Amino acid sequence: MIRGTFANIRLRNQIAPGTEGGYTRDFTRDGGPVSFIYDASRNYIDQGTPLVVLAGKEYGSGSSRDWAAKGTALLGVKAVIAESYERIHRSNLIGMGVLPLQFPEGRTAESLGLTGEESFSVAGVTELNDGTTPRTVKVTTDSGVEFDAVVRIDTPGEADYYRNGGILQYVLRSLIRK
C-alpha cells in the first residue's frame, strides 16, 4: 500500500518532468536521479530527513480514504503545503500526524519560486505543545524564500490529535492516563 501512495498515473510530479505517477527525484543520491517515490522516501528516512509535499488546489481530492494519508505519513512526509485541501483528506492527514499547511491567499509554490529542491524549515509549530494552535507558521527555505503558511488544524480535537502524533497515539495516551 505504501508503494501505491502517489502512484496514480494522473499525478505529475513537477520535480520529475516527463514522468507520471509514483516518480520523484532522489537528492540523497548524486545528481538527484529520477526514482520511485517509495525508494527515494526510504533513503530520506534512513538519513533522518523529514519530507514536505508542495501541492496545488484541492490537495487530496479523490483520496479521502485513510490509507492515502497513512501512506503519506509512512513515506516520511511531515508536512504538506497546498493551495487548498479536500476536506476529509486534510482531516485524515492530521489523524496520521502530518501537518497540513496552506500557502498564503493568492500564492502558490510557483509564484513563490519554489521548485521542490529546497530544504524547508517551519517555525512556530511548537506552540501546539503549549495548548494553542497558531494561525500561521513561518516557513523558510535554504534558497531564501520565506512566507507565513496558514495552519489548517481547524478544531481543538484536531489539535489534540496532531499534538500527540496522530489519532492512534492520542487514543493510546488517553487510555494509559486513565
Essential attributes:
alpha/beta; 178 residues; iron-sulfur; metal ion binding; Aconitase, domain 4; Aconitase/3IPM_dehydase_swvl; six-stranded mixed sheet
Describe the protein in words:
The structure is a single chain. The chain is an alpha/beta fold and 178 residues long. It has one domain: Aconitase, domain 4 (Alpha-Beta Barrel). The chain has five helices and eight strands; from the N terminus they run ββαβαβαββββαα. It has helices at residues 37-47, 66-74, 87-95, 156-163, 167-177, and strands spanning 23-25, 34-36, 51-54, 77-82, 99-102, 120-123, 136-141, 146-151. Helix 2 packs across helix 3 and helix 4 crosses helix 5 (167-177). The model has no long low-confidence stretch (mean pLDDT 94). Keywords: Iron, Iron-sulfur, Lyase, Metal-binding.
Which structural class matches the secondary elements? alpha/beta
Strand content: 15-25%
Strand order in the largest sheet:
3-4-5-8-7-6
In CATH terms, what is the fold-level topology?
Aconitase, domain 4
- Helix segment tally: 5
User: What level of helicity do the residues show?
Assistant: 25-40%
Quantity of strands, as a count = 8
Mean pLDDT: 94
Main sheet specs: 6 strands, mixed
Q: Catalogue the unreliable spans.
A: none
Order of helices and strands: EEHEHEHEEEEHH
Gross morphology: globular
